[in-house]
Structures are given as structure tokens and as C-alpha cells.
Amino acid sequence: MNETTFEIKATGSVVEGVTLPDLDPAEDYKGYRGYSRAVLEATGARVWCEVKATTDQGDFVGILLPRSETADDKHLVMKLTYNGYNVGIKSESIQHIEVLGYRKANYKIPEKEFPKDPVKPNVILLGTGGTIASRLDYRTGAVIPAFSPGELYGAVPELADIANMNTKKIFGEFSENIGPMHWKKVAEAVAAEIETGNVNGVVVGHGTDTMHYTAAALTFMVQNLPCPVVVVGSQRSSDRPSSDAAFNLLRAVKTAAEGDFGEVMVCMYGPTSDSYGLLHRGTRVRKMHSSYRSTFRTLSDTPIARVSQDGFVPIKEEDAFIHRDMSRKPVLNTAFEEKVTLLWYYPNMQADIVDAMVDAGYKGIVIAGTGLGHVNRPLFPALRRAVKAGVHIFMTVQTLWGYVQMYVYDTGRDIMEIGVTPLANMLPEVAYVKLGWVLGQTQEPAEVRRMMTTPVNGEITEREPFDGYLVFQGGLPELEDYFKYHQV
Amino acid sequence: MNGNSGNQTDWKQHGFRCGLEIHHQIHTEKKLFCHCPAGKYSDHYDAEVLRHMRPTLSELGEYDGTALMEFKTKKEIIYRLNRETVCTYEMDDTPPFLINEEAIDIALTIAQAFNCKIVGELHIIRKQYLDGSIPGGFQRTAIVGVDGEFPLSNGKMIHVIQLGLEEDSCREVSDNGHRIVFMADRLSMPLIEVVTECQMETPEEAQEAAMRISRMLRATQMVRRGAGAGRQDVNVSIEGTTRVEIKGVPAISRIAELTDYEAHRQRGLVALSEELQKRGFTPGEKPGRVVELDLNGLRFNNPDLAAAVQVRDSVRVAVFPDAKGILSWPLYGRRFADDISGQVRVVACLDMLPNLLHTDGPSGGLDEADTAMIEKLTDAGAEDVAVVVWGPEEDTVTATNEIIDRYAQAIAGVPNETRQALNNNWNDFERVLPGPDRMYPDTDSPPHEIAPERVEAAKEKVPVAPWVREEMYREQKLPEDIVDLLPITAYAPLHDKLVSEKTVDPMRSGELLARMMTALQRREYPVEALSLDQLEDLLRAMGAGRVYREGLFDLLQHWVDHPQLSLDEMLEHLEWTRVDDTELTAVVKEAIDLAKGEGPRLPENVFAMAMGHAMDIVRGRVASSVVREKMTEMLGL
Questions:
Q1: B623, B614 in Cβ contact below 8 A?
Q2: Residue B50 and residue A246: Cβ atoms within 8 Å?
Q3: Residue B440 and residue B635: Cα distance in Å, rounded?
Q4: Model pLDDT for residues B242-266, shown as the tens digit of each residue
Q5: What is the domain class of A122-332 according to CATH?
Q6: Catalytic residue among A287, A334, A434, A461
Q7: Distance from CA of A175 to the nearest CA of B (A)
Q8: Partner-chain residue, chosen from A109, A273, A481, that has the shortest CB–CB distance to B51
Q9: Fold for the domain defined by A340-453
């Protein structure tokens, strides 16, 4: 509805023989408001109409497109018929709009039936959102996810060479909107699919921003896996020819179908080149770059293996990862305490921050401390008060790589004395997820500490390999080449 | 009448139509969508990235034909990255930054130079290219202006459909088989694109229109110069055909010949289509079948096939019924089989030529024995023609499919294609002509409003059209080289001002501003160091008789190296003080003595030698005519 009325000089007409469907203002004026909306109403033109717009600037022939809701109310967007370009036309300059036709976009990935081959392994793809397959959303001008086995086959037919695929959409959320409720649903779906006995592996399609939180949550919530559970997404949306989505999906499906693994992993680009993917343990992986394809890195450890169309190249020793064993039955435990937080320490952090959390009823705090696991002294009284109030506090390191080592300096010893428990080399985000999961099961301090410091699958490791601090892990150029170029 | 080069085809009668897409890099400090420096090229690279391309749907839900074709080629694409000129944007690992505002301002000026109307809002669009030339798989491009025009010398107005601002693509390094290599340094350099209506009715008109666009661009002083800064695509059609695009025309001077060849090729294809239809084939029909040869025990005389048998390549044959004379159908110097071969080269990546052989006459490359054997192996009848390809199994399958497709297209006429200009004015298949389906809104970039004040400010910078100035300069009786040069220099407005004020003689001004400055520029003197004010001072000094043309070039050579000096300071530095009659008499006397001392063989040589010596001393300070007069007087001639 337009609040203000506008005086519109523009007129409209419809070419004979063209009939428009019944008016649906939400769709037919999509994204238009204010003056622009008034021009459309006055001239009878609608979104998806092919029109000839006569303006002070000459004539424009094209399809009237929906407008992004965040854009201004002074322009109409048209896709010009003869060349496919979009242009914005000043609404005020419009004198007349003649409707020539109506052509609603039928945006659909060509759907073909996914071929079934009884000899091939079965893989289930669970959808949670993200851009493994996507289409354009005119409301926001952004891409929205779309997928079904048929669409996937239409977009990435090579999938059929690897496995028989089924898909299930659990929900459709952008990565940043995903939280504990969603982790539970995915965990339940993973367990349920495996329990059917019909799948050789599970792929979870996921937005990349919080993929590593979900991978950690799945590791804790569904244990004793018989087969791989592979979390995958894309850094370049699949509406681009150069998207990494197809390769990521192919490698994830190959891992789920054939990989000799029995744990939760993230499968994303190794280097930025289209050459191979890396399989990262779900508890040791982190998104490290806002836009690079090869954004996921294993921290303080090496990835489990490389995967490409040609197969797997293990990076870890045979006994350092869990192998496939289809006789295992998954154990589901989706308990979660949501009153848990992650506190990123910075110099001069004030005690009132910690106090505020305690007063807000938080039951667990993971601190990402400086260096070996430190916070400043003025915070000590607040930490003491928190522990006394029954809040469970754990220490991780904001260096991300390396162990918490609280015996090295007095500060560390003092913090432990207050009742803060060091979490070795557990990543801060993983510690946050795990603390929520543990506190969902018990509030008993000793038991919470025991569970937190006993690894489920690699979130704490006894040893850090010398190459666990491999920042580049298939970066560009590869580490060896990098040193060669720089003659270090 | 017409002025076609080398032949007398009346193209107007054949419905010749040509349109232009002129691309030119514009002069900005940084690239269009990131902050890398613009205009730096080097063959050095620090890293390589491997990528592939996959077609996506257009926003209207359709696949683009070109995109699908390029996907069929299954290329490995290598990008070479130079640390200085490439960041994570060019390698498609970072979304675009906001569009370069300097580039928008330049595009607004150029759009208005062609009288285009400016759009209210810039929408950045992705134009798909799956050939790998852009790592993202699409070029970011936007329309800045539409509906402009400019005149040809015969008075005909040429309609400018649109003026676009877009990012440049990578430079191709090599393309062998399934592997193509690009340098990424040129990627994302800002380009403008001028697109005209298909209105030019002869090859000469097309060439003139391209020349006028190019000169207008240079006249703005806002475009880059040098090899590769400008590139033109030419669309050609004749009666009964739709457009074929010739891409990458390297020089405007070749447009007439290239379009002439293309129009002839199309005439040949139209005749071929008529012949095929006469033989009973109908458009839409796909005649032909494919046979894979069992190579066991085969012996070919043809060396390529003999080698293929030895290395166990796959050999496939497409057999066409009633096709005698079709494959060898002449296309103005080439044959229909050459058109097919081009498509096989690109799509099937069989790029060692010849990449096909056929049984339709001697041009097919097969002798009688080979022809007979292939006909027998494929059950080909007397009127059938077999086309043979060899290579890796997968590629020969693609190749025979393409051959069947291309043959079917010939029944209908001339396929819409993008063709690559060749050195001899011929052209060869590059890709299927892309359509509107490859356009997709750039979801990474917001719409960009263009304020009216900004449009006005940009309009102020539109230069007088070179063709208008050319006429003016002819009226000033300037020689043609200056008429040609001066309108596209930055100095034309200064010339016009001083000439209209009658401060300086047009010829003197033209010599300085066009000839000398251009000559200095070509010798890589930093001429832009001298400001218009400084040149104005110089021209005024010439007009006032303080500086004479004979010394100008020396003066300029020194001045560009010391641009911080004013004209007076420069003259002082060169000790170019005024020469009065007494000094001149002394100089001339000394010069005569010197010349005589050198022992001239003939008395008349003394004059020339002495003139030389005298001018060495007073060049630029006294008109040579005055020196000559004095010399004549003192020699008593």
C-alpha cells in the first residue's frame, strides 16, 4: 500500500490481445514502493510485463523486473529485450508505458530423473540451505537455495557416475541463522538415515559461515558412526560458472559413497585451484577466510585426507582416523544447554562483562584467552564470583593454534586456582559447542570437567604434529613453492 | 558505384548490413572492481591457478547456447597471477569492491560525446563467458548510456544503441588441446564499449564509422593508447542471413576487407543452403550418420590416418547422403569443409590441422585408395560423402556430433556465430553467438544512481567532434597530416582559441601542437609535463615574434625535461636572448668567415654553409628569412 499519493503524469496502455493474470500486488509490484509503485499502478504495468517505456530519454523496450526491497523508490528496473542488459529508468522520466506482453521467469534448473544403478552406493544429501544449488531471489537480489535429486542431476550430471542420490530438505537457512535447534534436527536426520540401513554415507549441504560449528555439533551429537558424514558447501554460489559448488559436491558424494571413514568431516577446497578437496575432522576445522575458496583449514593438526575425482590420498596415518564399519550403530544425544557463551578476551576487558553474563543466567563460559590462556588480573574477582555462582568456565586460546599452557606463568596458575579449566588445544568455537552439549546433560562440576577434557573425536589431541601449524595447507602457492620463491 | 577493395560487388544490392562494437580501455588509476593498479602488463607470474567452467541458468531460467558449447569443450583453464597486478578479486576469491567512480565519470563523458542518453541507475550485469577468459565465468558490465548518434562523412547518421562500461578479460597465452592458459594482469581493466546499429551498408562505411568512433574516443583524452587498448567486433549480415560477429579485429584499417570477405562467405553459404534444399533437405532435418571404424588391420595412405591407426586413436566417420560437392562447396577462397573444421577445432579440441578429411573431391585430402576403403567400411554410396576425424575417443565423439550439427545448420543457411578474424582477412569459427540468455544480474553489486549534476559535469568535458574540427582545419588550409592529428590531441582547444583570437598563425600553431608534440611523444619524451598554459605562452611568444619556428623543436626537447621553468626562464636558460641588428651582423660575419675557412669547393656553397653556422647560433631567436636577407646583403649577392 502506498501511504502518500503521488501525482503521476505517466499513462499506460495494453497492446491488443495481451491479457494479464489477476492482480497480485505482492508479486506484481515486487520490491516497488513510493513513487515507482505509483507509476506502475497508474500505467497498469507489472513485474514480468514486457513493456515499451516512453521517457524523456527515449524509448526502452524490455521486461519489467522485480526490484530489490532495499533499493530506492525512484527507478524502475528493466531487462532490455535486445541485449539482456538490466538498466534502471528514472520513474519521473516516464511518460507512457505500453504493455506488450507478459512473461514470468520460470527459473528452474532442468530437472531430470536421477538414474539409479543397483551396483552403485547410495548417498543421502541432507539440505540445510547454502548455495550448493541456488537460484536468484528478486526480493533481496541475492541467491536462494534450491535442490532436488532431479535438479542436482540437471546441474551436476557427473554425480550419477558416483552414487545413487536421494535428497531431503531438513530446513533452508542461511548459515548465520543456524543454531543449536538446527544442529539437533540435522543430528536426528543423520542418525535416522543411517538407521534405515540403506545409505553408504551422508552428505550435509550447509552454508559455509558456520559450517564448522555444525560439524563439531554433529561429532558430539551422533557418535559411533558406521560411515562418513560429510558437511559441504560452496564459497562461490552455484549461479556462477566458476562456482566451487559442483566440485565440492562431487568430492563430498564420493567421500560419502566410497571413503573409508567413519566420522564427521568437512569437505571443501584444498587449494583455490580446482584440483582437490581436503577432508577435515569436524572438531579441528575452522573457516579462515571470508571469501577464498580454500577457506577451511585444519588447525593444530593435519587434515585427514585429500579427495579428488581420482580417489583418496590419506594425510593422516591409518590408525589416526576412524574407519568405515557398517556394523556400528549410531548413538544419538542431542542435549543442549543454550545459556553458554564464548568470551573473546581483549586487553583491558572490564569485569562487568563477566558479571553481566552471570547475572543474565549463563551457565557456561568459554574464554578465548591471550597467548597460553590468559586474562588480566582485574577480571579475577568477577571470575571468582562466577565460579561461586556455579558457572562453568573453560579456557581456550585466541591464537587458535597451540595448547593452553596455564602452568607457565603465574597468571595462568592463578586463573586455574580460581576454578577455570584449561581445554588443551580445543578450538574456542568447538569448546563453545561442546560446553552447550555437555551442560545439556549434566551440571555437576566434576562431571562437566571430565566430559569437557575427554575428547569425543580429536577436539583435544595429545600431540600436535610438527606440521599441524600448516597455515597454507594447499594455499597458493603451495608451502614448498612459497619458500622456494622467497628463498627462505 | 561503390569502392569495394579488389572487387566490384555492389553490397547495397545484396543487403549488406554491418554494426560495430568498439571496445576501448579507459585511463583510470585503478581497475574497475578492485584496487589493483590499471595498465600494468608483464609476462612474469608468481603463481598459477587451475579452474573449470560450468554453465548456469540465466535469470529467465534458460541456458545460453554459447555457454553450453563452451562446457562441451571441457577445458582446463590456467590463470597466471602476478603479485603486483592481481589480487583475490581477479582470481575470483573475493567479491567485487564498489565500482570505480573515476571510470563512471569517464564513461559519462564518452557516452555524451556520442549524444547518448544517460540511464538513471547503473545496474551491473554478469555477461557469461565460459571460454575461461574471465575467472568468474562472467564479465561484469553495465549500460551507462543508450540511444546516441554520430554522422558519417556522407551525412548519414549512425545510431549508437548503447554505451557500456565493463571489465576487460585476461590475456590468452596459449590454447592447446584441452588446456588454455591466461595471464590475469589485464583482467578487470575498465573498458568502454560503443555499440552501433547494423546500419553500415558497405564495408567502407563500416570502416569509416569505426574510425570516427575511435577518433572521438581519443579526442576525449580519457582512453588508453598502445597495442591492445582498442579492440573491435564487427557484425555482418546480408540479405537472407542473420548476424555473424567477427571478434578481435586488430586494426580498424582492416574492417573493410574483413567484412567484405565475411559477406562473400555468407553469400556462399546462402547458395549452399539453396543447393541443399534443392536436393530435398529441409531446415531442421539432421542428415548423416556416424560410424566408428574398427582399426584392426587397416592401412591408410594418408599419413595422419596411418599414424592414428598406429597410436590406436579412435577414428570416426560422419557419412552424409547425397552430399557430393557440398563439403568442397566454395566459400570465397575457402570451402565449407573449412568452416566445419573450425568448429571441430574449437568444440572438440582437435586443434592439429588438418583435423578432418573427407571424400568429396581432392580438397578432402584422401587419395582414391583411402576413399574407396572408407566408403566400403562405412557402406557409403556413390553420392554419399564421408568426413573422417581421429583422436582421443571422447573428442572424436564430440567432433562427429559437431560435424552433423554444423551440416544440418547449412541447410537453413548461415548460423549465428562469433568468428575470429584471421591474418589474411578470412575468419574462423570461435563460438556460437551468445544471446540475451547469458546476461545475469550481479548479485554482488548494488544499483548505482547517477546524479544529474554528475551527468552535467561530465558533459562539460565532451570534446568538439574530431570530424567537426577536421573541416575547420581544412578551412584554415592546414596540411592533411595536421588535419588528421590535431583534432585528437589535447591541444586542439588551445589551437582553436589562439587562432580565433588571431594570436598565432594556424600553420605555426598546427606544426607545434600536432607535428612536433606528436613527434616528441613518439620518441617517448614526457610531453604531458608541459601544461596548456606553457604551450599557450610559447604560441603567444611566436605570435609576438619572440620565438621562431626554426628553434622550436630544440626548445621543446629541453623544456619537457625542465617543465618547472616558465617560458622566460627556459629562454634564459638556453641563452635565447633577443638578437638586435648589430649582434646579427656580427654573427653573420663570423659565419661567413667560418664557412670560407672551410674551403668550399664552389663560391655558392659559402652561402649554404654560412647560413647553417649562423642559424646554429640564432635559431629560434631570429626568423631564418631575416638571417637569409642579412647574409645575402653581406655576401653582396
A1: no
A2: no
A3: 82
A4: 889 998 887 899 999 999 999 999 9
A5: alpha beta
A6: A287
A7: 18
A8: A273
A9: Rossmann fold (3.40.50)
